[in-house]
Design brief:
Layout (H helix, E strand, L loop, with lengths): L4 H22 L1 H11 L4 H17 L1 H11 L1 H21 L4 H29 L3 H46 L1 H7 L8 H8 L1 H6 L1 H14 L2 H29 L4 H27 L5 H20 L5 H29 L5 H30 L2 H30 L1
Amino acid sequence: MSPNYHQVTTFIVRSCLSFFELGSFKTYGVLIQELTKRADLSFTQLGLILAMQRVLSYLLAPLGYLLYNIIGPRAAIVFGGLLVGLGYVGNGILPWNALWLTLCCSLIGIGFGSAWTSSIVILRNAFSDDATFGIIQTLTDQSSFIGMMILPVLFERLQELYGTRGALLLFGALNLHIIVASITLRPERGQQVLQEDRHNSDAALSKVMPLISVHWKVFVSNLSVPFLMIIACLFTFNLVGWALFAVTLGIEKGLSKSQAVFLSSFAGVGAIFGRLWCILLYYLKITTPFHFICIPALLECITFIILMLPDDNYVMLLTVSFVVGITFGLIGAAMGGLCSMKVPVEDFNPAVVLFFISVAMGNATGGGLSGAAYDIFGSTQIVFLEMAIASFLVFLLAFCWSIIEYIKND
């Protein structure tokens, strides 16, 4: 069955959002050393400020869901894209200090938050079959790691040509393409889930406590939800640590800035293969937490330990970066697919909100703790030790989850 117009436009919008959301955040790894000096901030302070962008984009998932119900998905994503563009433009023209950086990163986070929830809900509505949704979400999220691979290198080049502020202004213009993509949306009005969501929007606005009660019920009634939330938090903790300090790691190992940026971005190439690995597992119907999360988490832990060693061989570092990307790509795609498979359709939207809140917690702790570790020890070794520990905890959680699923299904 060929895709309809609504499915195609939803796929395009979700892919565009994914490309800019993670790729743009990854460019802060190129800027972090310069920003700490010019804004006179510690790495802990700056890590928390920069992480605010992703914290708000996920913590405001309930707001995004309400906007989706009130003004519709297209308007919610247009509104979000406008805020994202304004935030990057603000970073380009306003003074660099704690107040203005926090304001601009918050604007970007609110913008992505208002658009992100709408994009995943309309994607789920457009592709109702669990397996199809898992594959489509994996394909759209491919663009996040393509952005992670391309945008930091592009930003460094723009920085050389136009200076840091000029590069940030151009990035604001690039992110406004989210608006252009979202204008193409023409959701099918007859979709049952969408109709039910719109019908219940007034109740969601007027009765906050029942809305909280729904989310709490989903959390306690399905064991997969707390497992997914904790794993998502730890996974995001590592993703933020990599985004902010992978370039610094390369520079510490004696690489030039261009080599360090490429080393960091090369994980995006591996992530593409990780997503393809995930699609293959979907195709083979191997959809257990053990294969999706447990194995790659252990591999990720090993790679972070290797990066702590003093070896500065560039080819070896690129190889390890590639493997890190594979684990990021596979685990990141698997969590969304597992959510759609383990959570009933009627509980999916509240589960997405809970999932995004846990991702926000991972962003906050990742930015703050990785920055604090670098401030205290002056080296990325402790940063990557924190990440190795987080990966090992993901391995243990996924292993326990797999055993519980096996016993339940036996």
